[in-house]
Amino acid sequence: MWLQKILVATDFTESSQAAADIGLEFAQTLRVPLVLMHAYPILATIYSGVPMAPSQDYALQYEKAAREALEKERARLAARGAEVVPLLRAGTPWEEILSTAQEVKADLIIVGTHGRRGLPRALLGSVAEKVVRLSPIPVLTTHGRPDTQSAAKS
Fold first, then answer.
1. Domains of the chain, with CATH numbers?
2. b/e for 118-131, b at 16 or more Cβ within 10 A?
3. Does residue 5 register a pLDDT over 50?
């Protein structure tokens, strides 16, 4: 068996929940550990050359909210009978996903995508795209649950 550990990156959106569900199915079927991670960005600058350091209270509240959301998602998956290891990272999400995958020795990364195209994608960037492009290990991407996608198109 080539998969020994699966890393699921989440931003707590519907597409990330779908990715986590897929990761859970793989982990249970293959009997391998599932690592659920979330990376939140740190505001460092607003304008070039003008540092913006968030207050310590703000940073702590932001981290606390991220930790609570990660625990809620971990509990949702664990309720289905799996052991899920949660990891919280602060930094640029795509960089943190790749470094965490290396750190935990993951063999597969699973990440949800928002499916943005055109200008929104160009302006906002794509974490999933950067992970796919730069990852030395396989990456599985998903847009979300098929049942909600078809309902949204109707």
1. 6-153 (3.40.50.620)
2. eeeeeeeebbbbbb
3. yes
